[in-house]
Amino acid sequence: MLSCPLLGSLRLCLERRPPLVCFCLCLFSLAAAFLALAAYIQWHEVRDPDITQDWNSLLESLSHLRFCTDNGTWGGPTTLAPTPRAAPPSPGAPPALSVLVGLTFNLPGGGRPNATRLALTVTGHQLGLGGPDAQQPIRLVVVTPWPPGPSPQGSCLSLAGLPSLLPQTRAPPLCIVGDLAAQSRAEPGCCYPPQYQPDPALATMLSPEDRRLCSQRLLLAGLTALSLCALLLGAAGLCLPPARHARGRL
């Protein structure tokens, strides 16, 4: 018997107060979004939003630049090292890091086994890197394809610059550039833009502990929104008296 007046008052409130109905629907939609997002984060890998500078973003920024053939003295054919490690820096030059990346170039004579060496000098700011050393230059040298042969896996990219400029996230596999220059199959002075597809392995993901914490907080927020929606509807049903004809029937 007590539930009938409450239901009648609630129905009357919903009929006469559209703003309250819209607000409750918004709360319910927000709660559903929170709960769905909590379930998604709990069961799927999620990229860390706090990491804005990683190797994928750096390599993607290279696709907007052009590498030109490098005629400097660097030695001859490049070879894979038996154990991956960074290439040692030359005397008086900034430390260099050589990594195997998925940069590809549309070069002439693509089926030849010999490699082409391309180079570029830019600042960290041009690569989308931040920090106090963003205006410092970075020397980029690409040996492509890598390894030289019928089954290349990508390109060997050597970066010479301040270590603080490079992303401190998961880096690509290391490669070794030998002491002999790569044989260029491109004409001197030619420049080529690279193509790059983001590598999911280089993305920085949230740890399971962080995902669990985010999921718990989103779940709590969703339940809070649902509770608030139920509280508003209950208060509206209790505070608004039912219509006179409804009381007469009771």
Task: Provide a descriptive summary of the structure in words.
This protein has a six-stranded antiparallel beta sheet, with no helix packed on it. The longest helix is centred in the C-terminal third of the chain and has 32 residues. It is elongated. It has 250 residues and is an alpha+beta fold. It is built from five helices and six strands, in the order αααββββββαα.
Gyration radius (Cα, Å) is: 31 Å
Helix content: 25-40%
How many helices? The count is 5
**Largest sheet properties:** 6 strands, antiparallel
- In round numbers, the mean pLDDT is 74
Which strand-content bin applies to the residues? 5-15%
Strand order of the largest sheet: 2-5-4-3-1-6
- Decide which structural class fits the backbone: alpha+beta
Query: What is the CA–CA distance across the termini?
Result: 9 Å
Give the CA-based shape. elongated
**Contiguous uncertain segments of 5+ residues:** 73-93, 245-250
* Elements, N to C (H/E): HHHEEEEEEHH
The overall strand count is 6
Provide a quick synopsis of the model.
The protein is an alpha+beta fold and 250 residues long.
Structure characteristics:
elongated; alpha+beta; 6-stranded antiparallel beta sheet; disordered C terminus; 250 residues; 6 strands
Secondary-structure blueprint:
Layout: H1 3-16, H2 18-43, H3 55-62, E1 67-69, E2 96-101, E3 116-123, E4 137-146, E5 154-160, E6 191-192, H4 208-239, H5 244-249
Antiparallel strand pairs: 1-3, 1-6, 2-5, 3-4, 4-5
Helix pairs in contact: 1-4, 2-4
